[in-house]
Amino acid sequence: MRVLAIESSGLTASAAIVEDDQTIAEYTTNFKKTHSQTLLPMIDEMTRMVGVDLSAVDAIAVSGGPGSFTGLRIGSATAKGLGLALGKPLIHVPTLEAMAYSAYGCEDIICPIMDARRSQVYTGLYTFARKTSEEGNFYDEPAFRVLRVQMAVSVEELIRHLNVYRRRVVFLGDGVPVYKEMLSEGLKVPYSFAPSFMNRQRAASVGALGIRYYKMGRYETAAEHKPEYLRVSQAERERAQREKNAVPEVRRMTREDGAAVAEMEHQIFSDAWSEKSVLETLERPGTICLMAEKAGRPAGYLLAYTAAGEAEIARIAVTKELQRQGAARALLAELESVCRTEGIRKILLDVRSGNSAARALYENTGYKEDGIRQRFYDDPQEDAILMSREVSEA
Length: 394
Prior knowledge:
Largest sheet: 7 strands, mixed
Low-confidence stretches: none
Structural class: alpha/beta
Number of strands: 17
Oligomer: single chain
Order of helices and strands: EEEHEHEHEEEHEHEHHEHHEEEHEHEE
Shape: elongated
């Protein structure tokens, strides 16, 4: 079997053509150039030098992460493009597994570490275990074992994991020079650092392990392949922080909000309302329907019926990923403001007895318990706590 292997998860850019019993070619650079500049020219030069047509490869093995977001996307896009053009399957090889595989036969704990910044590393724990050979057979192939799958952890947490194993550890990867001192200070087990020729990512290791995984049936179409990031990107983290810090805005609900509200209903409630039910409530006279948004995204909603100078909350919810960020309080505050404007003097609601978070929110915003409706809720069956509050004067 012959595979084209691509490695672009870190500063190292590497491409190789690997067969079952040999590496035909490997082109590796560890230099500060973007992989978009180097990867395709490297593949072109390598195949030209050894006279291999890419149409002759059986599959494309690609380092699937974790690692640099940009590097992984470039490698993934390159592999997907070639796979689609050549009609070849892709083999997703976890980056850290390929790094550990380069220490073939090592019975110590193999611990590749990639600097993930913010005092964290991408890592995993691996080893090679000896298979029991048949009597009289001297062939003794080691079996690759994953002790802990790929993870993003602090160096302190990694040290705690390793000290528990009480086994010798060998480290490799670009995180070694960054955290070497911390490791030396915290480890209580014997350890060593891999030499330069095996302490960085290599496409040949991706290809060799990829062949093994292919024969185990672990491959996919080019269209299916996605890199494994383990952590969200810096841009995504900053966006999440902006959304968390944003002040929720509340407005009157419109028909265009119906689909978003129905989607949140199905996310949150076992007795979810349909979009039709939401729109019927919106169009019904004497209702107050509010929509909360945070950083331009739907965050929650409130539906209330009014009669005889009172408003009863029929539905209030906040989407799961934006809960505990002020949206529910903002909805309740706006409801009170609308009620004050419309001459409504009391707001009523009921809440599951077991929903302690919601009950605490209502109590903190001035609602008092009025009574209990026994076994009011189904799925699961539960009492309803009746609550109300007087609308304050402006």
